[in-house]
Design goal:
Shape: elongated
CATH topology of one domain: Heat Shock Protein 90
Order of helices and strands: HHHHEEEHEHEEHHEHHEEHEEHEE
Strand order of the largest sheet: 3-2-1-6-5-4
Distance between the termini: 63 Å
CATH class of one domain: Alpha Beta
Largest sheet: 6 strands, antiparallel
Helix content: 40-55%
Number of strands: 13
CATH superfamily of one domain: Histidine kinase-like ATPase, C-terminal domain
Structural class: alpha+beta
CATH architecture of one domain: 2-Layer Sandwich
């Protein structure tokens, strides 16, 4: 078994060295570092002592998984599992950079408010300057240098080692590990091996993240183009339907006066009038989607706008026994936009959340979480303001998540399926973005990104 493992390592090492030298003048820097890490790991595996066969097997499995797994969440789960197998610790957490909020957020947690590190905080700054892991037990006095929030997170995670994940002079993530299960200190060889694994994993996660970003960007471009084409078609269809529909509705209203409302024919006329009203509502929605009104841009305080919207549907929320938790993590909540149209977007999203939570039983809480926080910088003069609406409803099936912004896609019987399509258009005209993520059985979160001057 050992001979087979050794031969595999030598063969792989030879291939990687050959590939590295062939591509050394043509491949980019990231790829060269990636290959160098591969060579380092293979060398480490090849020259481990014979009694470390189990460790060799773990390292080989880990190395293969990095080459085969493209999904970021699976990569993270596999990485944390393998690290804990190689060096069993009391706790282990991975924080990755979230470019939309400039925070390092914990991965793989289901907490409503998971811990995070600020991208501009002292911990990230220290890791960037020193370019080495922080060993807490060796520098206990250093903790006082960090902010109270950072100290609280490190204490909560029982941190012993804090590793930076570096990608081309940029910290893309932070690995926080607790003490070893056996109570011993981390040895030099263990730290070197962890550094190698981290270097390899960092690039694998970075590539998976870039793939996801590019995929999402292409989806947004495709969706915008598709909605533009559908808008043109909808405008033509709406005008063709509206004129004869007006005549039909007027005729039905005139004829209905000849029948007693209590008779069968009178009830039939009443039903016909209701159906024409429904068609007219759909036509009006089509026109709103295809020919939206111009933006009346003024200063809009989003905090006040949300409170006004909640007051507007306060009775509905009480009737459905829905609790609202509204948090804002910034004092600067003013943007330039159309207050009425933005209120329409918020109202539509909140009403959808109410509808999604109708079926919740007593053991499943009905809570709508609304939050507002700073996002990433767009340029030197503006950044995004993030507004999130997260419910605890039934969620959206994965097969339907790509269709929620499509016209006429509806999951409720009386819905026209135009609400979110109109909302998407409104946010797009504000030069913002509207995103959705959902977990079936747990809930849905809509996030609005709007530009804000700084």
């Amino acid at each position: 078994m050992l001979l087979v493992l050794y031969n595999e390592c030598v063969i792989k090492l030879g291939k990687m060295i050959t590939q590295f030298w062939v591509n050394s003048y043509t491949c980019n820097l990231k790829y060269r570092i990636f290959v160098e890490n591969q060579i380092s790991i293979v060398c480490s595996i090849s020259f481990l002592p014979p009694h470390h066969i189990e460790l060799k097997q773990l390292l080989l499995e880990f190395n293969r998984s990095l080459m085969l797994i493209a999904d970021r969440q699976l990569l993270i789960k596999n990485f944390l599992s393998k690290v804990n197998q190689i060096t069993p610790v009391e706790s282990i957490s991975l924080f990755l950079s979230d470019e939309s909020t400039e925070k390092y957020k914990e991965q793989g947690t289901e907490e409503k408010n998971p811990p995070y590190f600020s991208g501009r905080g002292k911990l990230v700054s220290w890791l960037a300057v020193n370019e080495r892991p922080l060993i807490v037990s060796e520098s206990p006095s250093l903790l006082s240098y960090f902010s109270e929030k950072e100290q609280e997170v490190l204490k909560r995670l029982k941190a012993e080692i804090v590793y930076p994940l570096n990608v081309i002079n940029r910290i893309s993530g932070i690995l926080v590990m607790g003490k070893k299960v056996n109570g011993k200190r981390f040895g030099k060889q263990e730290l070197e091996l962890l550094s190698l694994l981290l270097g390899q994993t960092t690039f694998a996660i970075e590539h998976a993240s870039l793939y996801e970003i590019q995929r999402d960007r292409l989806k947004r471009m495709y969706r915008t183009d598709r909605l533009a084409v559908l808008g043109e078609l909808a405008a033509g269809a709406a005008h063709e339907i509206k004129n004869p529909l007006t005549s039909i509705r007027s005729t039905i209203q005139y004829l209905s006066s000849d029948f007693d409302p209590d008779t069968e024919k009178g009830q039939m006329m009443h039903e016909l009038l209701n159906k024409t009203e429904r068609i007219n509502k759909i036509v009006q929605g089509l026109l709103s989607f295809a020919r939206p009104s111009e933006l009346n841009t003024t200063e809009v305080n989003l905090e006040q706008l949300i409170n006004q919207t909640l007051l507007l549907i306060n009775n509905t929320l009480k009737k459905q026994q829905i609790e609202v938790e509204f948090e804002y993590f910034t004092e600067e909540t003013t943007i330039m936009g159309d207050a009425e149209q933005l209120k329409q977007v918020c109202l539509n999203i909140i009403l959808n959340a109410v509808e999604a939570m109708k079926g919740n039983n007593e053991s499943h809480p009905r809570t709508l979480y609304i939050s507002m926080e700073h996002g990433a910088m767009i340029d030197t003069r503006s950044r995004y303001l993030l507004l999130s609406f997260e419910d605890t409803g039934k969620g959206i099936d994965e097969k339907n998540i790509e269709n929620v912004f499509n016209p006429f896609f509806a999951t409720k019987e009386e819905g026209t399926g135009l609400g979110l399509a109109i909302c998407y258009g409104i946010i797009n005209r504000h030069k913002g973005e509207l995103e959705v993520r959902s977990t079936p059985g747990k809930g849905t979160c809509f996030t609005i990104k709007l530009p804000q001057h700084v």
